[in-house]
Amino acid sequence: MKRVVDSLLVLDGLLRATGVFAPDAERVPHRRLLTVVCLGGALHGAIMGSFAGPSGALYAALKLPVLLILAPLVCVPSFRVVHTVLGLAEDEPAARRAVMCAQATLATALLSLSPLIVFTYVSSVHYHQAKLVNMVVFGLASLAAQLTLARHYRPLLAKDRRHRLALMAWPTLYLFVALQLGYALRPFIGNPDFPTEFLRADWMGNVYLDLYWAVRGVLEV
Amino acid sequence: MSSFSNLDRLLRGDLTTPDALKAGRVDVSVPRLLVATLVCGGAFGVCLGLFAATGQTPDGWWQMVSSAVKVPLLFLLTLLVTFPSLYVFATLAGSRLTLMPTLRLLVGAVAVNVAVLASFGPVVAFFTLFTTSYPFIVLLDVAFFMVSGAVSLGFLSRAVSVLFGDASAGGSQKRARLVFRLWLLIYGVVGAQMGWLLRPFIGNPGLEFVLFRHRRESTVFEAVMNLARDVGGGW
């Protein structure tokens, strides 16, 4: 019980940006942040994928942490270069901490919204309704991540206004990469009309090209 | 202090004084209030199931037992589903309440709701003895659920206003107040659907007793839409 309370207190510090998660803390708590992202992502993934049964839950529990870790990892080199070009290289570790804390907040917020997903599934909703609820949950969790990002960026912005550009660059780049990665790693919920599978056969496809062809197809009709 | 004296002090407002709330303290005991919620909810459930038990439904006595379990479950499961997200988003918004005080406040609101509901139990039982009209009993119970919900809402709104609404409140406290108000909406929606999932509570006369009704519509909102369509002659 004490361990559970301690873990929850860790999360409280993350959400309030205090203690080891404070913007001005001495070092970045990499291990703790990674644990929060992995556990939060895996548990939420399992709940998300349970729509398609136990195998769907297992697959999504494996894939969601990959999405939450790999997407920012792909963006980090570009983020570093943006800081260097803007002359903000010395603040890059603080910015990296902000991004990592935002990602851990995303996982925490997703986990906190999981009971609502379970409840929606128990209410025997249709696939498209389940998809919509999951999209809303991801939207809310992303909003939570943005709040943490903004909180960590406050001292940086007070120090140098150029951080505003970096603050805008991160969500843009991250969203661009995460959408593609999410598309490659789908299904996360599992359409009941298709067999449960780890990855779709066309997982190497490009989400933006597919969107382009879909829009073009609609316009031609 | 017993569960009921704790509940009594909560209803009188002794446990949520403005001074304590302003200091970020909510002095209620969660285990004691949970016991009071189980007992009060169970008592109201017995009164709800009385309609089926007084000969309106075959095996109606089971309805009393089942409703006595399901009424407290309705409130506690709704809290279980909605609490984690409220805590995370209120904390992110800058709420000064930490995990346990937030939980205490919400368990307090649920206890107020169930206590007020239980106080209507004798009225429900009284009317059950004098009517065979199922729609009348349904409307009466819905009205009591709404009144008790409104009282609980008032309790929570007052507490939230004291906690986050003083003149010196910064933007973060205003945001936290907004999160709590949005949560009330989510709590209401989840509670309505939870009630739909756990039904029957009263027992439709002529139908045999079942623990859970077969679901024709998956959500309460679809059911209300269908009902409205039927009433409106299929618009």
Characterise this structure:
The complex is a heterodimer of chains A (221) and B (235). Chain A is an all-alpha fold and 221 residues long. Helix content of chain A is 76%, strand content 0%. Chain A has one domain. Chain A contains seven helices and no strands. In chain A, helix 2 (30-49) packs antiparallel against helix 3 (54-85), helix 3 (54-85) packs antiparallel against helix 4 (92-122) and helix 4 (92-122) packs antiparallel against helix 5. Chain A starts with a helix and ends with a helix. By secondary structure, chain B is mostly helical. Chain B has one domain. Chain B is globular and about 60 Å long. The N and C termini of chain B lie far apart (58 Å). In chain B, 41% of the residues are buried. At the A-B interface, helix 1, helix 4 and helix 5 of A face helix 4 and helix 8 of B.
Order of helices and strands of chain B: HHHHHHHHH
| Radius of gyration of chain B (Å) | 19 Å
Distance between the termini of chain B: 58 Å
In terms of structural class, how would the helical and strand content of chain A be classed?
mainly alpha
N-to-C series of helices and strands of chain A: HHHHHHH
Give the terminus-to-terminus CA distance of chain A. 61 Å
The domain count of chain A comes to 1
| Largest β-sheet summary of chain A | none
The assembly state of the depicted protein chains is heterodimer
| Beta-strand share of residues of chain B | under 5%
**Count of DSSP helices of chain B?**
9
Average of the residue pLDDT scores of chain A: 90
Q: Would you report the number of β strands of chain A?
A: 0
